[in-house]
């Protein structure tokens, strides 16, 4: 399966973040230590996720191409700083926005645990999306490096498959003109067409 390693990474990232956010539920806060703790947790979460993204991307590239693997930290940073066509945001500014909103919500919260759970859920969605994106972008990089000119869009055929993905399944696209994934958690994948 194309996203098997990404799934493993997402589970590891989620376990680590669950523990970190769980610590927040035990703490007493004032405005200063709220921001300090949240900043620390988000910084650690992003650093840990980036390590996984590198491993995911290297693995995805290697599965497609036997050429020298160009995936490195700079490649990951470049991927993270491009506007995402699905979410329409940039990775780092969106992390900072989530962090700031969480700090505000936690400072004003009547139910601290509810705010912690909500922030964890939003962070988890973003980090999981980029794990999947690491697979897709590294796979496409390998195709480009191999000189592939066209890909075939492949969709899973189950009850979760959206109508857009069903419509694209089996269609051939120029590698420089692939439509963006239509939604978060899209698990459609690409195959070489030539």
Features:
194 residues, mainly alpha, 3 strands, elongated
Could you walk me through the main structural features you see in this protein, from its secondary elements to its overall organization?
By secondary structure, this protein is mainly alpha-helical. The protein folds into two domains: 144 residues; 46 residues, no CATH class. 64% of the residues lie in helices and 6% in strands. The protein has a three-stranded antiparallel sheet with strand order 2-1-3, covered by helices on one side. Helix 1 runs antiparallel to helix 5. It is elongated and about 60 Å long. The relative contact order is 0.15. The model has no long low-confidence stretch (mean pLDDT 94).
Quick structural summary:
With 194 residues, this protein is mainly alpha-helical. 64% of the residues lie in helices and 6% in strands. The model has no long low-confidence stretch (mean pLDDT 94).
Strand order of the largest sheet: 2-1-3
Proportion of beta-strand residues: 5-15%
Give the class from helix and strand content and strand pairing.
mainly alpha
How many individual β-strands?
3
Number of domain modules: 2
Order of helices and strands: HHHHHEHEE
Query: Compute the gyration radius: what is it?
Result: 19 Å
Tell me the overall shape: elongated
Ends apart, CA distance between termini = 21 Å
**Percentage of residues in helical conformation:** 55-70%
As residue ranges, the low-confidence spans are none
> Which sheet architecture does the biggest sheet show?
3 strands, antiparallel
Q: What is the typical, i.e. mean, pLDDT?
A: 94
Number of separate helices: 6
